[in-house]
Amino acid sequence: MTNLRSVRVLQATAGMLVLAAFWQVLSMTLPPFLFPPVPEIISRTVEILITGSLLIDVLLTAARIFAGLLGAFILGAIVALLIARSRNLENFITPVLNFFQGIPALSWVVFAIIWFHGTEFRVLFIMVMTTLPAFTFQILDAFRSMSKDLFEMTMSFRPSRWTLFKFLIVPTIVPGILTAWKVNLGNAARVVVVAELVGATGGVGYQLLRQQQLFDMAGAMAWTLQLVLFVLVVQQTINVIENWALRYRAVSERAM
Amino acid sequence: MAEPVIRFENVSKVFRRPDGRGDFTAVDKLSFDIDKGEIVAVLGKTGCGKSTMFNIVAGLIEPSAGQARVIGHDPFKEFDFFRGKIGIVFQGDRLMPWRTALDNVLLGLQILNADPKTSEETARAWLKRLGLSGHENDYPHALSGGMRQRVSIARAFAVNPDILLCDEPFSALDEMTARDLRAEFVRLVRQNNKTAIFITHQLNEAMDIGDRVMVFHRPARIAFEGRLTAETSADARQTMRDDIMRILAIDPTPISATG
Question: How many angstroms away from the CA of A165 is the closest CA of chain B?
Fold first, then answer.
């Protein structure tokens, strides 16, 4: 098992090293303002991480992502549970959510700028609106995948609504919720940059806009890497939580 | 004379067909009484309404007509009254995969809000009684089919119910394991003075387990009813077996026999 894991880590590292080497070769043959050398990008990335005034922009973006996802998750969970209880409500709400899902993130940015004043509320609105449908549908799917057999078995003990929720519904939907967070995290990271590019005065998106105005490719790459690193760290954290929460699954099942 | 623990009076259950084209009757004016401490085996072909009757007793569905009473109460309408009074062993083990064997046995006790310390002692004792000591912390995927079904039996017994309902609980197990568990189950029911309904589609199993065997027609109504005791002679058993075989083979008009 350890050997297999080591091989996987080596393969993943090798892939990234090849990409970095390819970039480095390009940087040696093309102008540095197009392809700055890899060491410079790394140096700029580290500089952001260790400079408080710059790191604050990364943390601001991270906070916006979390706030948006949390808002969409809570709202999505409520809507999903309401839909699950009423077919009529499902018929009513599903087309609206499908319609929202079809609206591009950039359109929500424009709407937010036209409708609202405060930057933070604009970003929160954009984040919630772009991730709400996915959260709702994923939680609904998780709820609907609940085993009828387990439901009947639990009901045979005649639980209260709360104990049914605690002992059956929550453990049933946890895997779906974790997947929803992983999927939406990537989407949220992309959307937040767009939102910050257009309507914010701080954050990674705002800094990217500045790098574009300064024509500073190394800076643009360094800020982009901040976001990538953030997503990777959070996804890894969710993976750890997932492995703990789903530790009951057979090894073969988890390997699928 | 004491009131029966389970009483069905002209109970019918009609379902709407999934395609919306009319209704079908799963249970048709079914009447029977089951006394305290009795083990009644219910036998019938697939789709004869055994499980529908089972679900009515369990209070999971409501009859369309007639009256079902369990311990003198309506099992569907009086939901809270039956908390902890009915234990069910299902066809599959229906263990929660995210709970260990011990936690699965604890489920009913937790739902009943029993004292955690006593509950754990009870759950461990039942696991031990069913030969699962040392497997308390195993998740269901790590247990064999027979072991999982033992956990589900422990889960049903742990809440100390008055009535046990079993829906073909051993049908998915190999014959040896099923025979052992069957014997264990009957022993536990008798030792703890429980009333049990045991649904099966195997004649041998019904005659091994039941103090009484009821055979259902389709839709569910009694086609045959016979009693078995330790004194029932081999000849009487054979006669009963032949009668039931004939009913199951040709579905004739209702007959009654006593062994």
Answer: 11
